[in-house]
Design a protein that fits this description.
The complex is a heterodimer. Chain A is mainly α. Chain A contains 13 helices and no strands. In chain A, about 75% of the residues lie in helices and about 0% in strands. In chain B, a hairpin with a 5-residue loop joins strand 11 and strand 12. The chains are: A mainly alpha, B alpha+beta. Chains A and B meet through helix 8 and helix 9 of A and strand 6 and helix 2 of B.
């Protein structure tokens, strides 16, 4: 081999070594959590966190799901799971639908002050919501839905609206204006054009919006803690309660299993629909 | 009787006045073309007739009814767009029938009309395809079909052929002419292509800067342009413009360079004043090579170069300070160099005021 080829090979080896190290650096915490969740309590106590489980068992997963205690209740994390599902479904459906309609109206219909509305939406999308929590609590309790399912759904919809509207507006702006004109001449009105012309073209962006909202709402902790009320605590809030329960010894294996269970739904959605996600994000960016 | 009657129509975008006091009576059964360069307001005017653009003042009548405040769908119009604007997710059949379904036309009637339009436009084979599976020409046919099934009183076309390649454009032009003759419908057609306008129109409105410069039949527009702009915009190769001065006497002439061009038979719109500056416009086909003794205006010229165009050759000549083009018979133009004599056929020239740019 010539010197140039040697140099080339050494460079390659260096590059791959670096990549492997970086991968390990980022995946070790996750690997530790996964490994711990398959260990027994005794194993967790005696060995280093970096050892692999001697005899992997799913006992802690079962316990985390169905019988782990948070406070005085011992129904496992599944209570929170179903609460999260009950919060998620209406929140996602309503916020995506509202965003799509707002985006459509702002892009293809002459709305008085549309530019100002857009500016406000953009502004809202970047305000950290911690800032407006207190007035929001006042407003929601004035409306009489504080601490209820309706309350947390309303809050999620309101917080989702700016980003959803911007997302859909930017998508619809890319569709030719003449489509709407043609449909208007054909006699279709606002809703019929939306339903029969725009929506069939929106499959990709609908999937993107649904993924964004689902992961956002599922992973939410603060809003769920404040607005959902005792009976509707989402999975994230229950997970926190589980991990901070101070009676007896800390069951790291059960806690990690519960954490993984909580993180699983958004991950699954990414894996199942990642294809659409990439397509939707780039659609409209490439073709004019 | 007018199918469409536009009066006093104005519109601005901020300070920019895109349409200024437009008056336009459109004949029933006619093929009216709105012609002009981009940004002249022709598409805006068409959209205003369709009801897709709000207007500031003026009135639009269609078929004798004031429709100024009506929704586009309630005006009795159908429209064909430049980008075709076919509904991408619907089949050709669904595209054609969408408007009829929206208006709850009975099913057998929808089937009948879609069948009729598909047959007329030779797209019956394509009815179950999606727009993305069609070629440009086929999409254009579907777009026209979607307008035809509507039984509209007026058909509006917004630059429908601009997205097609040159060959297909010529074919579709003939097709449109055939459709118009066969159906006898009223068409308002926007284009920036003066050949399209000349070949299709029964009447042309030439627009510039939000105004109508001239509204006339194609022949009149070509032979007697009302303004310098119309004279320059219509006709290809373009009209020659020569600076000159009126010469009086019992036989009025115009002096161009050192030559007096006689104006016997010119129909002046205003009385000529000797000494006044004018712009003389003459089309290349009215500049001819000649020998001595021809009665018309003669000029010594230097042959510059020849552009063979097949049926004829465009010759370029330097004639004093002016560069003049002439449409020549190919064999007489071949190898033409050096000094020649040109005659300007006086019967076919136009005079314009250099200040107002109006025909004199």
């Amino acid at each position: 081999m010539t010197t140039a080829q040697w140099r080339d090979r050494v460079g390659r080896i260096g590059l791959y070594t670096l990549i492997v190290w970086i991968c390990l650096f980022f995946s070790i915490p996750l690997l530790v959590v996964i490994a711990t969740s398959f260990k027994t309590s005794a194993e967790v106590r005696t060995f280093s966190i970096f050892t692999l489980p001697a005899s992997p068992s799913i006992a802690s997963w079962i316990k985390a799901w169905s019988s782990a205690c948070t406070g005085l209740k011992c129904g496992g994390i599944r209570v929170g799971f179903w609460n999260s599902v009950r919060i998620l479904l209406p929140s996602v459906i309503i916020s995506v639908a509202a965003g799509a309609i707002t985006g459509y109206a702002l892009s293809h219909w002459r709305v008085r002050g549309a530019n100002i509305i857009m500016l406000l939406l953009l502004l809202c999308a970047f305000i950290p919501y911690q800032v407006i929590l207190y007035p929001l609590v006042k407003m929601v309790s004035t409306a009489g839905i504080y601490g209820s399912l309706a309350g947390i759904v309303a809050v999620h919809v309101v917080f989702g609206l700016p980003v959803m509207s911007l997302l859909f507006r930017n998508f619809y702006v890319g569709l030719p204006e003449e489509l709407v004109k043609a449909a208007r001449i054909d006699g279709a009105g606002f809703w019929r054009i939306f339903a029969f012309v725009m929506l069939p073209l929106s499959v990709n962006i609908l999937i993107v919006a649904t993924i964004l909202q689902t992961t956002g709402i599922w992973n939410d902790y603060l809003l769920g803690l404040i607005f959902a009320g005792r009976d509707n605590m989402p999975m994230t809030v229950q997970l926190n309660a589980l991990a901070t329960t101070s009676t007896g010894e800390i069951e790291y294996n059960v806690n990690t299993a519960a954490a993984l269970l909580t993180a699983l739904p958004p991950l699954l959605i990414y894996f199942l629909s990642g294809r659409y996600f990439v397509r939707g994000i780039t659609a409209g960016a490439v073709k004019g | 009787m007018s199918a469409v009657f536009v009066t006093g129509l104005s519109k601005s975008y901020g300070l920019l006045r895109v349409l200024q006091d437009i008056h336009l009576p459109i004949d029933s059964g006619g093929f009216t073309v709105l012609l002009g360069p981009s940004g002249c307001g022709k598409s805006t005017l068409l959209n205003a007739i369709a009801g897709l653009e709000d207007i500031e003042s003026g009135m639009i009548e269609i078929d004798g009814t004031d429709v100024t405040q009506r929704e586009p769908s309630k005006r009795g119009i159908a429209m064909v767009f430049q980008s075709y604007a076919l509904y991408p997710t619907m089949s050709v059949r669904k595209n054609l029938s969408f408007g009829l379904r929206v208006r709850s036309v009975p099913r057998p009637e929808i089937a009948r009309r879609v069948g009729w339009a598909a047959k007329l436009l030779q797209i019956d084979e394509l009815l179950d395809r999606k727009p993305s599976q069609l070629s440009g020409g086929q999409r254009q046919r579907v777009a026209i079909g979607r307008a035809l099934v509507q039984n509209a009183k007026v058909f509006l076309f917004d630059e429908p052929l601009s997205n097609l390649d040159a060959k297909l454009r010529t074919e579709m032009r003939v097709e449109l002419k055939r459709l118009h003759q066969e159906l006898g419908v009223t068409i308002v057609y926007v284009t920036h292509d003066q050949i399209e306008a000349m070949t299709l129109a029964t009447r042309i409105a030439v627009m510039r800067g939000g105004r109508i410069e001239q509204y006339a039949a194609p022949d009149e527009l070509y032979e007697q342009p009302a303004t310098l702009f119309v004279a320059g915009f219509v006709g290809s190769p373009a009209m020659n413009f020569l600076r000159g001065r009126m010469v009086g006497g019992d036989r009025p002439c115009v002096a161009v360079g050192g030559v007096n061009v006689p104006l016997n038979g010119y129909r002046f719109r205003s009385t000529p004043v000797p000494g006044q500056e004018v712009i003389l416009g003459i089309r290349p086909e009215h500049v001819v090579l000649t020998s001595e003794g021809s009665p018309d205006g003669l000029a010594e010229a230097e042959a510059l170069f020849m552009e063979p165009m097949g049926a004829d050759t465009l010759g370029w000549f330097q004639c004093g300070e002016h560069r003049v083009s002439a449409r020549l018979i190919p064999h007489s133009a071949r190898g033409l160099t050096g000094r020649v004599r040109l005659a300007l056929l006086a019967d076919h020239l136009s005079l314009f005021d250099p200040l107002t740019e109006f025909r004199r």
